Amino acid sequence: MYQSVILGSLLLATLYVLKRMRDPKLNMPPLVRYKFPIIGHTYIYLTNSEEFLKQCKKEYGEIFSLYLWGEVKTIVGKEHLQEVLKRDDSFDAGIAFERLLPLSVILKHLAKFQNSTKVLKEYVMNKLKTYTERMQKNLNFATQKYIGDCDEPKIISNVYDTMTKIICYPIADIFVGKELSQYEEIINTFSDFTIDAAKISIIPPVLDFIYPRLQYYINCIILKIYNPAVKHQRILIKHLKNQIYKRLQEKEKYGDSWKRPADFLQDLLEEESFDPNNINYAEIADKICLFIFVSIHTTSNSCTHVIMDLTSRPEYIQELYEEQLEVRKEADENGILPFEALNKMKKLDSFIRESLRLSESISTLPHVVTKDYTFANGLQVPKDRAVHLYTDDVYLDESLQGPNPKSFEPFRHLETNASATKIGKNFLLFGGGKHACPGRQLAINEVKFFLHNVILKYNLRTESGKIEGPKMIGPRKFPSEAGIVFEKRK
Ligand code: HEM
Ligand SMILES: *[C@@H]1O[C@H](CO)[C@@H](O)[C@H](O)[C@H]1NC(C)=O
Ligand SMILES: *[C@@H]1O[C@H](CO)[C@@H](O)[C@H](O)[C@H]1NC(C)=O
């Protein structure tokens, strides 16, 4: 009985997909042929995406479709992927992301936070310079706490975990302020929220083989029953209540002589729509959770890639060390660098860009087509189709990357003056167009201040003595978990 229902559904789903693929009105990208019904290209895409996509592109051209997880998805090569990033009237990354992880179910007040990007820009990014000192103090403090003096060589494996903790300190300070960021509980919420929230997306979407997006609907139901973010929201709300009460009291008491805490939370409290007699703590917590979600994992992950590459290639460290010594001369008596010093870390910046360039996944940044779209070459994609960017195609292109695009050449970006935050045709880490990551300057500044300190403070080598490059899981790259040896510079 069950078997026939399942088989029947599979058959129906396949027919449905095939029917849609043959929509006669549109000039669709070619569908790469496949041997196994239902499975389609799923297996080869998961096990050998690098070679597979290269072969597909060679045979089928700039834009082609694959049959993955019971659904036709379109892969867009370097010639046309900027169209996906720039035409936000037709492509939406938010919807695609929501299908992977229903964040709107996890953060219930998100729908009311329509101006999040504007808020981030005005409350944080436009004031980055004023956060320079606190950012460095926090990074230096956390580095000391989690890596330490290392008078004796110290091995740290799974650098990502350590990096996540370190990155939480400056970000928590900027978002909830100096006082709250002293609480271990708050730091833990910052470091664990993303992983807890994203746990459900670890399940491969096997239910999609039965019916398109079935996995998404089931995940939404699971999250409604068990929301992994709730415990973090409770902790945040508890502390926010005390902190907001305290700030309102002190402001009342000291009036004009009150020293306003400069942080994101205070900016929220000064919004016109904020009503001290009717405070929606859950909404404030959700806003902070959204920024935790987009900032901590991304920054720690990138920073881990860079430090693994740096440690793996000791031949470049001396040159970077000399640059940092030079930059160091600008530090004040507390060892704090001025904001402008970031621009003088040119070699480090280029190293970071190179490391990030080669740590990007084979294909990334899915977008959903929101209305039928015709690419410049005439091929068309229907509404609702998922479109993936063929990132590797960009990174393997000599005209975009310079000679030997596959090899790690840390100073290749010095000649082109492309800084690590610069988006464009040859660098997709931060997306592009209107929706390009608005937090990228914050992320890169943190990575630079952190590495400045690390390069001056420690000798680094991999425990294995070998290059520990990114590890592939399916089409995605993750930083290696191999050990790094930190030892105090003598
Ligand atoms: C190395 C670290 C980071 C990486 C790799 C990264 C990457 C990205 C990417 C790929 C997007 C999507 C762009 C698109 O749709 O075209 C994005 C969006 C976004 N990022 Fe980042 N990001 C990083 C750090 C941060 C930080 C530190 C913050 C904030 C504090 C942040 C806030 C955001 C926000 C709010 C969006 C949504 C923008 C929109 O939809 O208009 N990101 N990021
Ligand atoms: C964002 O929206 C809120 C209302 O929900 C408003 O009070 C605030 O001023 C807006 N912020 C910006 C930077 O536009
Ligand atoms: C890079 O910057 C330097 C100095 O700022 C300038 O002389 C050079 O022409 C620039 N190169 C490119 C390719 O823009």
From TrEMBL:
Keywords: Heme, Iron, Metal-binding, Monooxygenase, Oxidoreductase, Signal
Positions contributing to heme binding: C437
GO molecular function, one term: iron ion binding
Signal sequence bounds: 1-21
Cofactor(s), by name: heme
Family label: Belongs to the cytochrome P450 family.
Name of protein: Cytochrome P450
Organism: Rhizophagus irregularis
